[in-house]
Design goal:
- By secondary structure, the chain is α+β, with helices and mostly antiparallel strands.
- It folds into 5 domains: about 90 residues, GIY-YIG endonuclease (3-Layer(aba) Sandwich), CATH 3.40.1440; about 140 residues, no CATH class; about 130 residues, Nucleotidyltransferase, domain 5, CATH 3.30.420; about 160 residues, Nucleotidyltransferase, domain 5; about 50 residues, no CATH class.
- The chain contains 20 helices and 19 strands.
- The strands form 4 sheets. Strands 13, 14, 15, 16, 17, 18 and 19 form a 7-stranded mixed β-sheet that branches. It has a 6-stranded mixed β-sheet with strand order 7-10-9-8-11-12.
- A hairpin with a 5-residue loop joins strand 1 and strand 2.
- Helix 8 packs antiparallel against helix 9, helix 14 runs parallel beside helix 15 and helix 19 packs across helix 20.
- The longest helix is centred in the middle third of the chain and has 34 residues.
């Protein structure tokens, strides 16, 4: 649209049709591109008064105007959306922002093609056939060396000598096309075999290599037969190392799993070709203000399969989360259109009637999720190491942003845990110079509430008061440079009350609300918001999550102890000291249930041990 209309003017013109919308900011930069089945409904929803989505809360104030493009179908809208996102790279769309860092294999578009590694998957600059992207460069270069060993493709861009081939030909690593020592047809056959190998068509490739070996042996062209024999055994050896996930060699799947911790999300993509797991790619994504994990996964699918060659699209995608029916249908149609044959999109759920085949698919998704979780843990370790390396810079940022009187060397964080008011506990964790200091962690049982009573504010007030009363008595212990409480304005208010009653009203304190990761300060109505990808926010999240983990683990331990005691209370002759010994020794009810008579007797004596064993084995253990 040539004329730049206001939002109000554009909303009057937008039709009830499928299409793509483009959101612009005050600098006329496109900040977000979306697709819609009904443009009018979707775009109008952005400008309603109330929003509970972080996506809209952050983005909408930045929108000055929008454009829209009408399409004939939802699939056409998805294709156009993907194209426009790739072209404009809006800041709130692009997840694989640095896709140029991913290496690709390129089979060049030369008379005698080579296989090379490139980081520019753009046919405008380099023509040829692309395979990738690959996220593990080391594994990719290992594959390249394997390909060079198995398939004698040209390795030099230009001939090294005018009248003779180079040493690669002499050691049987090149067919010598620069000296016309191989026909164009024979060379193209080798190129085709490399493409089959990279596409995961190993079964088909092995059959072809064996067939060619036998044909040339029959023709008594023993040099060619030997070359195909060597390639055949090399491929067989490589394929033998791959995990077989199905005896059905027609199985071609991509399995996508993910794991998320706050703003860090890891996606694992497992590639199964001909029933074998041939590759795993890992993608780390920083969830910005507007992306939920669901949105991130959808966007990842669109971006990844927009990048890859048609030959890389499998027959089936297995996903770890259910995609909405309309979205599922559109993505399936788009991938089918791009591939030229049917592509299925499935989230394998299991129950008592699930087929063996579906259970196997579910297990593959679980494998992808486990891989994503493992990668996520590595990412977090790297992030934490980075925090410690940059601690001075991060600490200065926090001090300035929160207007702290001192550098935040010592941070103490509190959290409350309970289930419907039972076994209410609190935790305190300590971070010094950005590192957890576990010897100073503390846990508290809340005393002021009756069992079953729920009051997080009163619980927070109690634990704050108990903690800092003790510090006032024990003058040798250091006070924190910053207190963080898990929660919103209510938890902050309760904490302030407790500190003021102790005469500590000037202590620096903030609350961290999880939904939008907003930081509330005393006597300040608007929250402080750290950038989503900032190291300062990552530190706050790690501190908050550690306090939560510590509180939950203590709450669970109390709950298990109480469950054991309640069951053991039914044994009338069992004394309190006996119950305590059993709990201390076996830990939980399962441990006691798994113990035999002699083990129980060693702890509480033969008579009581026999009674406990007989009693418990008449009962089923609690869920």
């Amino acid at each position: 649209m040539k004329t730049k209309l206001t939002i109000e003017e554009s909303l009057k013109l937008i039709p009830d049709a499928s299409g793509v919308y483009l959101m612009h900011d005050k600098n006329d930069e496109i900040i977000y591109i979306g697709k819609a089945k009904n443009l009018k409904k979707r775009v109008k929803s952005y400008f309603q008064k109330n929003h509970d989505s972080a996506k809209l809360v952050i983005m909408i104030p930045q929108i000055i105007r929008f454009d829209f493009i009408i399409t004939d179908s939802e699939v056409e809208a998805l294709i156009l959306e993907s194209h426009l996102i790739k072209k404009h790279k809006p800041k709130y769309n692009v997840l694989l922002k640095d896709d140029k860092r991913f290496p690709w294999f390129l089979i060049t578009d030369e008379e005698y093609p080579r296989i090379i590694v490139t980081r520019k998957a753009d046919k405008k600059f380099q023509k040829g056939k692309y395979f990738g992207p690959y996220t593990n460069a080391r594994a990719m270069y290992s594959t390249l060396e394997l390909i060079k060993k198995m398939f004698p493709l040209k390795q030099c861009k230009t001939p090294r000598f005018k009248d003779r081939p180079c040493m690669y030909h002499q050691i049987s690593k090149c067919l010598g096309p620069c000296q016309k020592l191989v026909s164009s047809e024979d060379y193209k056959e080798v190129v085709k075999q490399v493409e089959m190998f990279l596409s995961g068509k190993q079964t088909e490739l092995i059959a072809e290599l064996k067939q060619q070996m036998e044909i040339f042996a029959e023709k008594q062209e023993f040099e060619k037969a030997a070359r195909y024999r060597d390639s055949y055994f090399d491929v067989m050896k490589a394929v033998g190392k791959q995990k077989v996930v199905s005896e059905n060699t027609d199985i071609n799947q991509d399995i996508i799993g993910f794991a998320r911790d706050n703003a860090i999300m890891s996606i694992a993509l497992l590639k199964v070709r001909d029933g074998r797991l041939i590759a795993k790619e890992d993608f780390d994504i920083r969830l910005d203000e507007i992306h939920t994990p669901y949105e991130a996964l959808i966007t990842f699918i669109q971006e990844y399969y927009q990048l890859v060659d048609v030959s890389e699209i499998p027959k089936e995608l297995l996903l770890s989360i259910e995609i909405e029916e309309d979205e599922n249908k559109i993505i399936k149609e788009w991938l089918t259109l791009k591939k030229g044959s049917k592509v299925n999109l499935l989230t394998p759920n299991i129950d008592s009637h699930t087929s063996t085949r579906m259970i196997m698919k579910h297990e593959l998704v679980e494998m992808a999720n486990k891989n994503a979780t493992s990668t996520l843990e590595s990412l977090k370790i790297s992030e934490l190491a980075s925090l410690q390396n940059d601690w001075n810079e991060i600490g200065c940022y926090i001090q300035e942003k929160l207007n702290l009187p001192n550098f935040p060397n010592r941070i103490e964080c509190f959290d409350i845990s309970h289930i419907q008011g039972t076994n209410t506990v609190a935790s305190m964790v300590v971070f010094i110079n950005g590192k957890p200091f576990k010897t100073e962690y503390r846990k508290y049982r809340i005393r002021t509430l009756k069992e079953g009573q729920t009051d997080d504010f009163a619980s927070m007030k109690e634990v704050i008061k108990r903690r800092y009363q003790k510090l006032l008595r024990d003058k040798e212990q250091a006070f924190p440079d910053l207190i963080i409480v898990d929660g919103g304005k209510g938890q902050l208010s309760s904490t302030m009350e407790a500190l003021e009653e102790l005469g500590l009203g000037n202590m620096p304190i903030v609350s961290l609300a999880k939904k939008f990761e907003e930081i509330y300060l005393p006597e300040q109505s608007n929250p402080v918001v750290f950038p989503t990808n900032s190291k300062a926010l990552f530190l706050f999240q790690q501190v908050r999550d550690e306090a939560h983990r510590f509180a939950v683990s203590y709450h669970r331990k109390l709950r298990e102890k109480n469950a054991i005691k309640s069951i053991l209370d039914d044994i009338s002759t069992l004394q309190i000291s006996h119950k305590k010994l059993l709990v201390e020794h076996f830990g939980d009810i399962k441990g006691i249930m798994d113990a035999n008579k002699s083990e129980l007797s060693r702890i509480i004596g033969k008579t009581h041990g026999t009674k406990v064993y007989s009693f418990l084995h008449k009962k089923k253990p609690p869920n």
